[in-house]
Amino acid sequence: IGDGRNFEALREYFSKDNAYGYRLQHIIEHRTDEQALAELEQYLARKEAFDECWLCIPFNKNPILQPVMFALRHSTANIRYMPGLQDLPLLNHTITKIGEFYSLDISCSPMDSTNAIIKRMSDIVIGSLILLLISPVMLGVAIAVKLSSPGPVFFKQFRHGSSGQQVKVYKFRSMKVHQEGEGKVTQATKGDPRVTKVGAFIRRTSLDELPQFINVLQGRMSIVGPRPHALAHNEYYKDLVESYMKRHKVKPGITGLAQVRGFRGETDTLDKMQRRVECDLEYINNWSLWLDIKIIIGTVFKGFMNPNAY
Question: DSSP labels for 226-295?
Answer without folding.
Answer: PPPPBHHHHHHHTTTSTTGGGGGGS--EEE-HHHHTT--S---SHHHHHHHHHHHHHHHHT--HHHHHHH
